[in-house]
């Protein structure tokens, strides 16, 4: 016993200075770039399957280059183009289908989350000539398959630029700000269907299919921009809130040879969330949905006469998610992903839309579809087969047989395959391992070579006080919910610690994942080093645990998710090392909606909450997202109002910090203003901050440092 006690004392004596010598993370570290990870930027495989390209950037002097590397040796074999006096600094690139031309993006200016304006150039890889597409800043330029033309959008109209003659042709003429949009999406499509370019060249460059949005009757949204001038001004755009009128969307076909536009009659097509050309240059696939988004039709358009036929129809009692997983094979059969059997899986259909076979099966989810190798008859995908907090890469035969796991480490893996599927570059990270990039063989997953490993960051973090994420599950309301807990390095079970919970909780989301840190993880580590225990729990409604678990919140956003967080906080407070009188919760966006509701409805459990850019009523949010889960306010008024926190401000007992950006085009500051007014009229004291002109991300300059300083002080003062 004496020897054991001596050994314990020696161990404690050895460990204590080690902990003391480590630095604590600071906000200046987090927002000053101390923990940046190295990446492989804009990775693309060359069509020969033997080489790949990436963008390389230098900060001083500021420059960029598009470099080609050999898969087998990983050596750089060529700089295709580099910024210079003749070639402006570029931040992105795309090849034409034949790789004879490269489109370079310069002077990029963001519009909304995904949309950009920019000055673009076409670089000829053979002649080394560079050609400016337009003097004006344009949107979504796309090279024709042979690289001879560039289609793009300017002021809501589609244009075509001929690279050789440097001549421009206007294709549509009715585009007008606030009424008609050609070739790019409106705000709500961009945000919720996750795409901006709404036109596509066919496979031989003879036709362009495009969407037109008539947003004439969509209500205006405006927000004041304060800027630096004497008078602020109003920024206006069309934003359809739940239950209001959407833009009328239609499909059109432009014939390059005749310079004529024709209309395609899709029947009842309330939404058109995807268009995609098939291998035949006269065959276009179109996905259409009803307003409730629980009926999806995959249609085929014959571009020779614009006739339409049905390939596939899918229905769901709740809603159907839109993905980019559709792949057409040479015989017109196609690969499709669906939650039909209760989990997201891969299916193969014949060219006439008849189911050939279900390729993947099991109580797990396909999380990414990478492609089909026609030569070997194999499909590559990512899934949660190794647990819902992990991701692995697999291959399987198109007949559903011969499945192979191609990655092995515990954590999150993602693959970028060579064009011929000989190799893939594996991006791996975990809660204890920063991003690593390595070359693997696609046939068996064997690692060929390491490429990049973030060893510099790993070494730097050795000098900081970090606590591990402890992954587990917690049984709440009849479900085993994924959870992680972070305890102080010097954790003592005989002491009591305040509990600070973090969550997002939105439909299909995931925060409890075995992957490398984001900025919030570093902030949580900083708080843990100050003596807090941080916990994150993915409750009902979150993703990757099956259709029913995800869609249980249908028509009741904020009900079951809040119940789970309150119940979890109660259960965690029973632990001997948790101080039940010091429980807090925070979140951003949907997470802010949740933290606000938890503080009000769980006033006997939570002593404080922070809500950043929260929704406070789904009546204020957009049609596509909100109605997908809630239907319209006219159809489901109680679902909207019973979980809108400004309807019960009198329940506030704890400390509350509410933060919003006045320039938030997504979750409008109206949400916080209504919450503020409700709390004022209920005579409830709280803290709040508005960041002028900042959008949903609340960043720029010192903004994030200021925000997180305020939140840190609020936590320390109130928890």
Overview of this protein structure:
With 719 residues, this protein is of the alpha+beta class. The protein has a domain at 465-718: Alpha/Beta hydrolase fold, catalytic domain (Rossmann fold), CATH 3.40.50. Helix content is 17%, strand content 37%. The strands form ten sheets. The protein has an eight-stranded mixed beta sheet, with helices on both faces. Strands 13, 14, 15, 18 and 19 form a five-stranded antiparallel beta sheet that branches. Strands 1-2-3-4 form a four-stranded antiparallel beta sheet, with no helix packed on it. The protein is globular and about 75 Å long. The two termini are 41 Å apart. Residues 1-17 have low confidence and may be disordered.
Descriptive keywords:
alpha+beta, 8-stranded mixed β-sheet, 719 residues, Rossmann fold
**What is the tally of helical segments?**
12
What's the gyration radius in Å? Answer: 27 Å
Low-confidence stretches: 1-17
CATH superfamily of one domain: Alpha/Beta hydrolase fold, catalytic domain
Q: Please tally the β strands and state the result.
A: 43
Q: Beta-strand percentage?
A: 35-45%
Helix-strand blueprint:
Layout (H helix, E strand, L loop, with lengths): L1 H20 L5 H5 L9 E5 L5 E8 L4 E8 L5 E7 L9 E4 L5 E10 L5 E9 L5 E3 L6 E5 L5 E6 L2 E6 L4 E4 L9 E3 L4 H6 L6 E3 L5 E8 L5 E6 L7 E6 L9 E8 L4 E5 L6 E7 L5 E7 L5 E8 L4 E9 L11 E2 L5 E5 L6 E5 L5 E4 L7 E8 L4 E6 L8 E6 L6 E2 L6 E6 L5 E8 L2 E9 L5 E6 L2 H7 L7 E8 L2 E8 L10 E6 L16 H11 L3 E6 L8 H5 L8 H14 L4 E11 L1 H12 L6 E5 L10 H8 L6 H5 L13 E7 L8 H12 L5 E5 L11 H16 L1
Parallel strand pairs: 38-39, 38-40, 40-41, 41-42, 42-43
Antiparallel strand pairs: 1-2, 2-3, 3-4, 5-6, 6-7, 7-8, 9-10, 10-11, 11-12, 13-15, 14-15, 15-18, 16-17, 18-19, 20-21, 21-22, 22-23, 24-25, 25-26, 26-27, 28-29, 29-30, 30-31, 32-33, 33-34, 34-35, 36-37, 37-39
């Amino acid at each position: 016993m004496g020897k054991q006690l001596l050994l314990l004392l020696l161990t404690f004596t050895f460990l204590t200075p080690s902990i003391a010598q480590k630095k604590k993370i600071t906000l200046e570290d987090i927002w000053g770039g101390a923990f940046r990870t190295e990446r492989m930027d804009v990775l693309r495989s060359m069509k020969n399957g033997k080489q790949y390209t990436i963008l390389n950037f230098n900060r001083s002097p500021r420059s960029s280059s598009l470099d080609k590397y050999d898969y087998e040796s990983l050596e750089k074999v060529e700089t295709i183009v580099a910024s210079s006096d003749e070639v402006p600094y570029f931040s992105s690139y795309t090849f034409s289908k034949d790789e004879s031309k490269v489109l370079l993006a310069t002077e990029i200016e963001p519009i909304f989350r995904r949309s950009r304006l920019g000055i673009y150039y076409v670089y000829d890889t053979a002649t080394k000539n560079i050609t400016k597409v337009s003097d004006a800043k344009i949107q979504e330029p796309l090279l024709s398959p042979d690289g001879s033309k560039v289609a793009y959008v300017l002021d809501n109209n589609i244009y075509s630029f001929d690279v050789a003659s440097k001549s421009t042709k206007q294709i549509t003429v009715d585009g007008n700000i606030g009424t008609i949009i050609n070739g790019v999406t409106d705000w709500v499509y961009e945000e919720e269907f996750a795409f901006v370019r709404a036109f596509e060249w066919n496979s031989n460059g003879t036709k362009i299919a495009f969407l037109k949005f008539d947003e004439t009757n969509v209500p205006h949204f405006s927000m004041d921009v304060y800027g630096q001038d004497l008078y602020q001004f109003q920024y206006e755009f069309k934003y359809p809130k739940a239950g209001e009128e959407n833009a009328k969307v239609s499909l059109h076909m432009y014939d390059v040879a005749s310079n004529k536009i024709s209309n395609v009659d899709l029947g009842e097509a309330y939404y058109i969330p995807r268009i995609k050309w098939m291998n035949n240059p006269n065959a276009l696939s179109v996905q259409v949905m009803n307003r409730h988004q629980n009926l999806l039709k995959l249609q085929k358009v014959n571009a020779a006469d614009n006739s339409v036929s049905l390939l596939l129809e899918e229905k769901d009692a709740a809603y159907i998610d839109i993905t980019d997983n559709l792949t057409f094979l040479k015989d017109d059969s196609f690969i499709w992903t669906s939650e039909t059997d209760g989990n997201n899986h891969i299916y193969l259909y014949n060219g006439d839309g008849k189911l050939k076979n279900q390729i993947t099966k099991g109580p797990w989810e396909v999380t990414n579809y990478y492609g089909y190798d026609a030569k070997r008859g194999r499909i590559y995908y990512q899934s949660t087969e190794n647990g819902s907090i992990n991701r692995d890469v697999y291959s399987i035969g198109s007949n559903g047989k011969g499945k192979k796991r191609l990655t092995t480490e515990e954590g999150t893996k993602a693959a970028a395959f060579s064009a011929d599927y000989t190799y893939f570059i594996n991006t791996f990270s975990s809660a204890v391992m920063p991003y690593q990039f390595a070359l693997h063989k696609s046939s068996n997953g064997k690692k060929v070579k390491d490429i990049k490993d973030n060893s510099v960051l790993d070494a730097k973090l050795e000098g900081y006080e970090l606590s591990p994420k402890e992954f587990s599950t917690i049984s709440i309301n009849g479900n085993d919910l994924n959870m992680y807990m972070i305890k102080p390095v010097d954790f003592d079970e005989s002491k009591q610690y305040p509990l600070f919970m973090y969550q997002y909780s939105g439909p299909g989301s995931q925060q409890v994942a075995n992957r490398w840190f984001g900025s919030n993880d570093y902030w949580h580590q900083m708080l843990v080093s100050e003596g807090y225990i941080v916990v994150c729990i993915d409750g009902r409604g979150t993703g990757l645990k099956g259709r029913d678990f995800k869609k249980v919140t249908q028509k009741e956003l904020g009900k079951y998710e809040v119940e789970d967080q309150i119940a979890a906080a109660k259960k965690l407070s029973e632990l001997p090392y948790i101080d039940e009188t010091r429980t807090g919760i925070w979140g951003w966006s949907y997470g802010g909606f949740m933290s606000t509701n938890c503080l009000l409805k769980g006033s006997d459990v939570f002593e404080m909450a922070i809500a950043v850019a929260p929704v406070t009523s789904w009546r204020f949010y957009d049609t596509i997202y909100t109605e997908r889960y809630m239907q319209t306010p006219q159809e489901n008024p109680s679902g909207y109002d019973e979980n809108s926190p400004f309807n019960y401000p009198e329940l506030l007992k704890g400390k509350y910090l509410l933060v919003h950006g006045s320039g938030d085009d997504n979750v409008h500051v109206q949400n916080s203003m209504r919450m503020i007014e409700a709390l004022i009229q209920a005579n409830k004291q709280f803290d709040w901050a508005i960041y002028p002109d900042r959008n949903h991300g609340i960043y720029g300059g010192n903004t994030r440092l200021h925000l997180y300083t305020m939140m840190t002080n609020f936590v320390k003062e109130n928890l």
